[in-house]
Amino acid sequence: MNVTFVKAAPAKSGAALVISNAVEGSAYSSDAVSAAAKASGFAAKAGDKFSTYAMSGAKAVNLTVMARGKADTFDYEMSAARWVKSLRGSGETALTIHLDGTDATPDDAARVALGARLAGYVFDRRKSDATKSKKPKFKTLKIACDNPNAAKKSYDNYYGPVGDGQILARDLVNEPPNVIYPKAYAAEIKKLTEFGLSVEILGEKKMKSLGMNALLGVGLGSPRESQMVIMRWNGGKKGAKPACLVGKGVTFDTGGISLKPGANMWDMKGDMGGSAAVVGAMCALAKRKAKANVVGIVGLVENMPDGLAQLPGDIVTSMSGQTIEVQNTDAEGRLVLADALHYAVTKYKPTAMIDLATLTGAIIVALGDEYAGLFSNNDDLASQIMAASDTSTDKTWRFPLAKAYDKMLDSPNADMKNIGGRAAGSITAAQFLQRFVGKDTPWAHLDIAGTGMKNGSKDPREPTFGTGFGVRLLNRWIADNHES
Ligand code: BES
Ligand code: MN
Ligand code: ZN
After folding, report:
1. What is the rounded distance in angstroms from the CA atom of residue 9 to the CA atom of residue 7?
2. 243-259, pLDDT tens digit by residue?
3. Residue 280 reports pLDDT greater than 90
4. 3-state secondary structure (DSSP) of residue 397
5. How far apart are CA 468 and CA 451, in angstroms?
6. Angstrom distance (rounded) from CA 110 to CA 61
7. What are the backbone angles phi and psi of residue 281, rounded to the nearest 5°?
8. Residue 58 has pLDDT above 80, yes or no
9. Euclidean distance between CA atoms 308 and 468, whole angstroms
10. How confident is the model at residue 133 (pLDDT cuts 50, 70, 90)?
11. What are the helix and strand counts (H, E) for the chain?
12. Pocket test for ligand 1, best of 269, 360, 433, 447 (most atoms within 8 A of CB)
């Protein structure tokens, strides 16, 4: 969708949304529009709306008028998104949203553009033309507002690139596992050098020499080579220590020898959602030329059963030197992250580190798909993330970490086992990760098993499946805490 910002000028065709209280005085006012307002009982309470056709010369405009009401809690972004979603099957190509004459700030106008793009998103690139006909055909979005220059600036410098990153993350999650497997995924990430990111790819040979046996063990059953990809964005002070973003990128999780049941197993193509959030966030940082040094690291592995696959009971030595008894090969994400986190901490000595992972089914039991689980060894960092959550729409809820949970990972045979038992499954997973972070790095873990992939979200901005959760949150966090 091509986005432009203009001063009030009524669209001559296409579909238009007018957000205001009055019908009279709107760019489309006419006797017919007033009559439609009356007939539909339009009372100008917040959210009241009606749709009709307005004549603009010889052409008709598919017009919706929505009242913003008196309260200052009107959500422009959400309202616009709801309208765009309602038009997905309409065949409309040109959309206009009128915010002129309201109290919408330039920032609100830019967010409306982002919300509209997110609501217009469907994953249809692998449909043939015959079935594409019922899909959105949106081409242009015009936003009429009182200060179009400032709105354009906010959009070009922030919300546009963030939207690009979030849509990239959605595409990566939605692509099937025969398209996005570790090497193919790494090649996709490599393309981001175009925007000024530096991208380094470690293959199995290199990871072996680094001692990353926890990550490599997960890939043993797959003929597809495991990869680790490091993205660097240096927009901050020269030589200043970076923030690190780390993502779980299991391109398909069968469970390995601890095989998952068959029902809905295809959902596990989305088990790289954490890595997609990191890739999308790095893409957005580069595109908006963020004034911060940030390193993104993703571990890309396919978890398969096979004659050579890792076995329950195997003991692996991680890059950190700590040994792990793999009691369940389906608790693989933490094994991938163990080496990725240790590598990040020792190589980059980050000022702060956040990892994202579709780590546990237990987080869905606790929070559904509304909030991501937040775990942290640092109260300041946790507060920063919760604040970024509030202003970015990616919601998080904090869980505890404690010695008693950590003890649940003790094993008689190795330094630890990779499962803690039925109780507190998301917390013991986070405790496991913490053992590879250590005490000196402010670190937070986001369990996005619920929020990263959804089926049937009520939020009009969210499509079926890959949501791109995390891209907005991470950019907000960097912008508010790491950019001067
Ligand atoms: N990728 C899954 C977690 C998951 C489940 C994500 C459902 C999204 C939806 C993860 O690798 C996994 O299998 N976790 C196990 C851990 C258990 C074996 C300790 C789980 O949650 O059952
Ligand atoms: Mn698993
Ligand atoms: Zn998994």
Report:
1. 6
2. 999 999 999 999 999 99
3. yes
4. strand
5. 9
6. 23
7. -65, -45
8. no
9. 34
10. low
11. 16, 19
12. 360
CA–CA dist 434, 445 (Å, integer): 9
Give the CA angle between residues 370, 371, 375 to the nearest 5°. 165
Which domains does the chain carry?
Answer: 2-146 (3.40.220.10), 162-481 (3.40.630.10)
> What is the 334 CA–ligand 1 centroid distance (Å)?
10
> To 10 degrees, what angle do helices 425-434 and 333-348 make?
30
Q: Mind spelling out the 3-state secondary structure of 289-340?
A: CCCCEEEEEEEEEEECCCCCCCCCCCEEECCCCCEEECCCCCCCHHHHHHHH
Q: How far is the CA of 360 from the centre of ligand 1 (A)?
A: 4
> Pocket around ligand 1: residues whose beta carbon is below 6 Å from it?
253, 271, 328, 330-333, 358-362, 419, 425, 449
Q: Is this model's pTM higher than 0.90 or not?
A: yes
Sheet containing 198-202, strands listed edge to edge, beginning at the edge strand earlier in sequence? 198-202, 227-234, 293-303, 243-253, 352-357, 443-447, 372-376, 396-398
